[in-house]
Design brief:
Blueprint: E1 17-22, E2 28-29, E3 32-33, H1 36-39, E4 43-50, E5 62-65, E6 71-75, E7 78-84, E8 88-92
Antiparallel strand pairs: 1-4, 1-7, 2-3, 4-5, 5-8, 6-7
Length: 97
């Protein structure tokens, strides 16, 4: 039996990368469907890990990024995004939320 398969691992970001757990995407707000113009609006997520060269967001912070930013990966059955720090449009300190 391979014990590595039983362990839940935490992804590590390198250099100026930020790993983000995307917030669930919604195309509706209550009973109303959002107009197509809002579908291109920035997306948000929570930082899972940051590389050693990242100076802005920290683990646990909320970030905003464009819809086309980053590379989607599947880690332990969970969808994550790997972004360059420069792709982060804004971030919010977890202590302020």
């Amino acid at each position: 039996m391979n014990r590595m398969n039983d362990l839940k691992t935490t992804p590590k970001a390198v250099c100026d990368r930020v790993i983000v757990r995307p917030d669930p995407e919604t195309t509706t707000m209550g009973a109303f469907e959002l107009p197509p113009a809002l579908e291109d609006a920035p997306r948000s997520g929570t930082v899972v890990a940051t590389g050693s060269d990242v100076k802005g967001p920290k683990t646990g912070d909320k970030v905003m990024h464009s819809q086309s930013a980053g590379v989607s990966i599947n880690h332990d059955g969970e969808r994550l995004l790997v972004l360059y720090e420069r792709e982060v449009l804004a971030f919010f300190d977890q202590k302020q939320i």
